[in-house]
Design a protein that fits this description.
Elements lengths: L2 E4 L10 E4 L9 E11 L1 H6 L17 E9 L11 E5 L8 E5 L4 E2 L6 H4 L3 H14 L7 E4 L5 H12 L3 E5 L3 H9 L4 E3 L6 H8 L5 E6 L3 H7 L3 E9 L12 H6 L3 E4 L2 H7 L1 H16 L7 E6 L3 H9 L6 E5 L10
Parallel strand pairs: 8-9, 8-11, 9-10, 11-12, 12-13, 14-15
Antiparallel strand pairs: 1-2, 3-4, 3-6, 3-15, 4-5, 5-7
This protein binds NADP nicotinamide-adenine-dinucleotide phosphate.
NADP nicotinamide-adenine-dinucleotide phosphate (NAP) binds next to α1, α3, α4 and α9.
């Protein structure tokens, strides 16, 4: 029977268990996917604690994105074949050896992508695209400041920002993280744990500030980001990886004629599916032509799900961390 990680009671990753589950029945329009890689996203670490906005009923298997091979198709499914390599997106169920999903939800694995890269592509990519293109309308020549720039969504924002023609300034907490952000396209990097990033951004922009700030970190970083904005700038609230959800000074929004935008890429996709379709079409075109490729920092066997989640919770992940059902641990992905 296929293995799956199960959350039977809310708690830290060590409370999850790896169990054999009977294969799910295949309904009309559905596909069974033999999963080869499962992406770990920061929200997974919150969902198992009951601290994320989406609270699935217990028990559940975490994991919102994976990649694998179609193993079985319902007779009414057209457009896919057994053996096709696909990316899956779902609200739960990704940390497993197999998953059953509506075939209409499947995404083709871009040519040349490993399963690990496929499992680290869609969520961060769609989040960055939704934030930068569909909400902030980032324009070529504008300055984009990306916080947590070596994290999953941060690195996707750095890469996409460059592709959109922006000048990208990246913040990150370690020399290794800053080196990866630079290698992935950042024009300038700032150690926001050691220097005042507002002063650094002003220095780097001739005093103007950043046109767009992409913030998945929250806390004091979000508070100070208002001071780093240029006139008419847009502040994208993407997440609170640092934990604290702060209040923002309304006078600073007024003084800079700024716009503060809340980003919920997954919910936006559910409410307005055309947004996710447009984002995916653009991302797959970039991936197909070799312009976008996720940075896989760690690939661990499925049984090491807790170690993988801990890499994100302890701020050690650089780019994406994935689990490999039936796979071997490798330092840099298969
Ligand atoms: N709005 C949306 O639609 C959406 C979609 C996906 C994810 N998110 C959110 O975006 C955030 C990042 O997700 P992710 O998957 O990219 O996570 P990630 O890979 O773990 O990256 C988070 C980054 O935040 C920084 N950070 C600062 N303080 C931290 C702390 N105490 N613990 C962990 N990281 C800390 C780290 O960079 P430094 O070490 O360089 O500071 C880290 O690289 C999360 O809050 C997540 O919920 C939002």
């Amino acid at each position: 029977m296929p293995l799956a990680v199960l959350c039977r009671a809310l708690g830290p990753p060590e409370r999850l268990s790896l169990e054999e589950l009977p294969p799910a029945p295949l309904g009309r329009g559905e596909a069974r996917i033999a999963l080869r890689a499962c992406g770990i996203n920061f929200p997974d670490t919150l969902t198992i604690l009951g601290r994320y906005q989406h609270k699935p009923p217990l028990p559940f298997t975490p994991g919102v994105e994976s990649a694998g091979i179609i193993a079985e198709l319902a007779p009414d499914v057209a457009g896919w074949r057994v053996g096709d390599r696909v990316i899956t997106r779902q609200r739960v169920g990704g940390y497993a050896e197999e998953i059953v999903l509506p075939a209409a939800q499947l995404i083709p694995l871009p040519p040349g992508f490993s399963f690990a890269e496929g499992a680290g592509f869609a969520v961060a990519g769609i989040t960055a695209y939704h934030a930068l293109v569909q909400r902030a309308a980032l324009r070529p020549g504008e300055t984009l400041l990306v916080h947590g720039a070596a994290g999953g969504v941060g690195l996707a924002a750095v890469e996409l920002g460059k592709l959109l023609g922006a000048r990208v300034i990246a913040t990150a907490s370690s020399a290794e993280k800053r080196a990866v952000a630079r290698a992935r396209g950042a024009d300038a990097v700032i150690d926001y744990t050691a220097e005042d990033f507002v002063a650094a951004v002003r220095r780097l922009t001739g005093g103007d500030g950043a046109d767009v700030v992409f913030d998945p970190v929250g806390g004091e970083v979000l508070v100070q980001s208002l001071r780093a904005l240029a006139w008419g700038g847009r502040l994208l609230i993407v997440g609170f990886a640092a934990g604290a959800i702060p209040a923002l000074a309304a006078n600073r929004i007024l003084l800079r004629s700024a716009t503060v935008l809340g980003i919920r890429a997954g919910e936006a996709s559910r409410r307005e599916p055309h947004l996710a379709e447009a984002a995916l079409a653009a991302l797959l075109a970039h991936a197909g032509e070799g312009r976008l490729r996720p940075h896989i920092a760690a690939a661990l066997p499925l049984a090491r799900y807790a170690d993988g989640m801990r890499l994100l919770m302890e701020r050690q992940a650089i780019g994406r961390v994935v689990l490999l059902p039936g796979g071997e641990a490798t330092p840099a992905g298969p």
